[in-house]
Design a protein that fits this description.
The chain has 259 residues and is α/β, with parallel strands linked by helices. It has helices at residues 5-22, 35-46, 78-86, 103-116, 145-150, 173-181, 201-210, 224-230, 240-258; strands spanning 25-31, 51-55, 73-76, 92-95, 98-102, 120-123, 125-133, 136-144, 157-166, 213-216, 219-221. It has one domain (26-258): FAD/NAD(P)-binding domain. A hairpin with a 2-residue loop joins β7 and β8. α3 packs across α9. The structure holds ligand 48F.
Length: 259
């Protein structure tokens, strides 16, 4: 059979367009495909929810690929190891209570489990705004990342979501937009973004999970974004909190959906 370039082109356009059309209305839209967003997406899809995961970069994985300072190994504690076990990711005990895993195996395996569970990843798309109705976030406003990078004056498109998860990591991009543009009080002590604090691994790991919750109607924060929102410290290249936070946010949304 002689390959036809136009058939290849049509296949890509039609299949992508159909996928994109189907995911313009989802149960959960996740912003940021780092470790916490990936884990959240997997558990939500496993529970039968329709999940779209938007990632600005070409690649998923966020800050996990580079381990610590580009040494591509990550560290997890016992509870974090238990989540890696769910994904059948190899771990090795370093000292009592400290386990290491290959960062590349972690990202690729989390991505594989998530997509096989039904998560649709929209990479190279940046979430630049939200839609708010009656004080609740009901959707996302998205644009191609290269449009943003080139500074082109192109209007974005929108999707509808029952729940939104902000897992953009340190920059906490979505909440900054919400705080700037909407008259919504956040569920933090001050009612505003509290801001990330300096590194304290032990404290930060627990707080990441504690701070994983609904921050304003329709929006949940997880991963490093949770600490950036609620004023928790950063933890550096220990990833148990990210994984546990992803699992917790999925459970919170499943519970809210069943309520
Ligand atoms: O930063 P990131 O890996 O978030 P995380 O899941 O994990 C944090 C750790 O990697 C590390 C740490 C733990 O030790 O502190 O930093 O909390 O991934 C965030 C992802 O969100 C994407 C970004 O490209 C990255 O892949 N992202 C950020 N803003 C947007 C976005 C946006 N506006 N639209 C789409 N994607």
């Amino acid at each position: 059979m002689e390959l036809n370039e136009v058939t290849i082109t049509k296949a890509i356009i039609e299949r992508f367009s159909n996928k994109f059309m189907e995911y313009t209305d989802v149960d959960v839209a996740i912003v940021g495909a780092g470790p916490s967003g990936l884990v959240a997406s997997y558990f939500l899809a496993k529970a039968g929810m329709k999940v779209a995961l938007f990632e600005r970069k070409l690649s998923i994985g966020g800050g996990m690929w580079g381990g610590g300072m580009m040494f591509n190994e990550i560290v997890v504690q016992e509870e974090g190891k238990e989540i890696l076990d769910v994904f059948d990711i190899n771990t090795r005990e370093y000292e009592t209570g400290y386990f290491t895993a290959d960062a590349v195996e972690c990202v690729t395996t989390l991505g594989s489990y998530a997509t096989k569970a039904g998560v649709k990843v929209f990479n190279c798309m940046t979430v630049e705004d939200v839609i708010i109705r009656d004080g609740r976030v009901t959707g996302l406003v998205i644009i191609w990342t290269p449009v943003e990078m080139a500074g082109l004056h192109v209007d974005p498109l929108s999707i509808k979501a029952g729940y939104v998860i902000e897992s953009t990591g340190h920059p906490l991009e979505l909440l900054h937009v919400i705080e700037r543009k909407a008259d919504i009080r956040l569920n933090t002590d001050s009612g505003h973004i509290m801001g990330e604090r300096s590194m304290w691994a032990d404290k930060a790991e627990g707080l990441t999970v504690e701070n994983t919750r609904e921050i304003c109607p329709g929006v949940y924060v997880c991963g490093m974004a949770a600490n950036a929102a609620f004023g928790g410290p950063r933890m550096g290249p220990i990833f148990g909190g990210m994984l546990l936070s992803g699992k917790k946010v999925a459970q919170e949304i499943i519970n809210a959906g069943n309520a």
